[in-house]
Design goal:
Bound molecules: adenosine-5'-diphosphate, magnesium ion
Radius of gyration: 24 Å
Number of strands: 18
Helix content: 25-40%
Distance between the termini: 44 Å
Mean pLDDT: 93
Strand order of the largest sheet: 6-7-8-3-9-10
Structural class: alpha+beta
Low-confidence stretches: none
Shape: globular
């Protein structure tokens, strides 16, 4: 069964250190939610409270509307997986996955069948008898996932499960975790500090900073409509234009406006809205070039704008460092923030 979770006014204080400050969240049954934020913002603490591995200083936690704040971990029925594989080194992959079932005194035949199915799911049937030391990091993490799923949990908690793996393996495992999660319809909370991971995997992202939730929304909402400069800056790249830097420009009520580098247009000819600038740097980034344009303007002041030019356009236009260009920031692409 898949459950909903509710975090209501939860705070956690360690001595003088506030790790979570009045966090409120609702997670629907079957949803894949990522807790995203910089190191130390409280993500793991929140996951541990949901698991019952630690108690909140304040607030309540609900599973399917039932208050579980004081329920021990063993009675919350979740699967969990951490960054380090944490497999038992002296047990085969099979026995690692079967471990939780053996503790439950389930019949051998049923264990064989269930664990066999899990190995099919993680596509490691031929590695069942290997020891963890005989498997790659990615394989060990797949076994850890199967182990987390073995006891048929109501929800799954993942704490930076891919962070220790190299880039290629990480990306293929993203897909695998997502497809298994969707197949099982299992409510899942994954902690990550990696924005790409959150953007590609999550149904919904909870962005955290300094013990509080900064914004929640679908990956598209978070990227297209960041509600504050922190979120705009943490997810994707962004150019900020501050009130104090901009000499006369009317920012309205906004303290800052911002625009993503891929939304800025760059040309060799001026039009009436465009700003004149000089290319200070061009960085090759594979599928796009990041062009730094030094703008000196009566309205916007002096600033460097980052402009992302897609690979094909960059190839055709052949911009050079030192040349004069004109950049245009379409009004509808400007994001306004009332505070810095
Ligand atoms: N057991 C603990 N004792 C004291 N401070 C802790 C403990 N666990 C976490 N913290 C502190 O709480 C804050 C949040 O930590 P954590 O939840 O691990 O962050 P994240 O997972 O986002 O990197 C940090 O400042 C951390 O030092
Ligand atoms: Mg952590």
């Amino acid at each position: 069964m898949s459950v909903s979770l509710k975090i209501s006014g939860v705070s956690k204080v360690f001595e003088k250190n506030v790790a979570l400050n009045n966090v409120n969240l609702q997670i629907r049954a079957g949803e894949f939610v990522c807790l995203l934020g910089p190191s130390g913002c409280g993500k793991s603490t929140l996951l541990r409270l949901i698991a019952g591995l630690d108690r909140p200083s304040d607030g309540r936690i609900y599973i399917n509307d039932r208050d579980v704040t004081n329920l021990p971990p063993a009675r919350r029925n979740f699967g969990i997986m951490f960054q380090s594989y944490a497999l038992f080194p002296n047990l085969s992959a099979f026995e690692n996955v079967a471990y939780g079932l053996r503790n439950k005194k389930i019949k051998n035949k049923d264990i064989e069948e269930r664990v066999g199915r899990l190995f099919e799911m993680i596509k490691l049937t031929n590695a069942k008898d290997r020891l963890p030391s005989q498997m790659s990091g990615g394989e060990q993490q797949r076994v850890a996932l199967a182990r987390a799923l073995a006891t048929e949990p109501d929800f799954l908690l993942l704490d930076e499960p891919l962070s220790a793996l190299d880039a290629k393996v990480r990306i293929s495992l993203r897909k695998e975790i997502c497809s298994i999660q969707k197949e099982l319809g299992l409510t899942t909370i994954m902690v990550t500090h990696d924005q790409d991971e959150a953007l590609t995997m999550a149904d919904r992202i909870i962005v955290m900073n300094k013990a509080v939730v900064m914004q929640e929304g679908t990956p598209e909402e978070i990227y297209e409509h960041p509600e504050n400069p922190f979120v705009a800056d943490f997810i994707g790249s962004i150019n900020f234009i501050d009130r104090e830097k901009s000499r006369v420009y009317n920012l309205g009520n906004y303290e800052r406006v911002a625009i993503r580098p891929e939304k800025i247009e760059i040309e060799r000819t001026a039009d009436k809205e465009s700003l004149r600038g000089k290319i200070a740097d061009i960085e090759f980034r594979g599928f796009y070039n990041r062009v730094s344009v030094q703008v000196s303007h009566v309205v916007y002041g002096d600033m460097v704008l980052y402009v992302d030019v897609p690979f094909q356009a960059a190839k055709e236009k052949k911009f050079k460092v030192g040349e004069i260009v004109y950049v245009n920031m379409p009004k509808e692409e400007l994001l306004g923030f009332e505070s810095a």
